[in-house]
Design a protein that fits this description.
Elements: H1 6-12, E1 26-32, E2 37-45, E3 52-59, H2 63-76, H3 89-98, H4 108-132, E4 139-141, E5 146-147, H5 148-158, H6 163-170, H7 180-199
Helix pairs in contact: 1-2, 2-4, 5-7
Amino acid sequence: MSIYPEEIASKVTSLRNAGRCEPESSSGKAVNFDCGSFIQVSILVSHGEKRIEGMRYATNGCGFMIAAAETIVEVISQKTLPDLHGFDMAEFLTLVETRSVRFPDSRKSCLTAVLEATRGALIAFRERLIEEFSGEKALICTCFGVSEEIIEEFIRSKAPRTVDEITCETRAGGGCGSCRLLIQEMVDTHLHLGHENHIG
């Protein structure tokens, strides 16, 4: 008789994603301080559309940690960075529950650790893009590697009024969303200067 609930036991007995991505785009780690176990998540992200083509994990944790990792891999695999909406923790907790994998309150820290490790891998991926960028102007959208120069040129030539117009053509702002406010400021500045020139 299994010491785990049925849906947890089924994940533990049919491991599909243990190990490490080879090659690897980035990785993230987290610790469950309730029991001292660790989890390391590695991801492989495609260069073009920034799709998560692979995700694997390594852990010394219990069956709940393993089940959490297996479930998160199922949820995230083949999604693009825009699909993840900045990786909202509450949203992904809900997604796990919709897959009929319920964690007792005393074991939700295992799921949280997996989510934190996954978030860490995504952050590390963005940081790597920034480090690899060699343009003269700042990198505005780290998710898709879109520079300030590219966005400025699009604004000058197309005169967009919304961030969505820029995202549609350049992908800037289509990932985690953290750059959308800055892009909107660039659009507003262009519109303001255009208005002043028109008056003048």
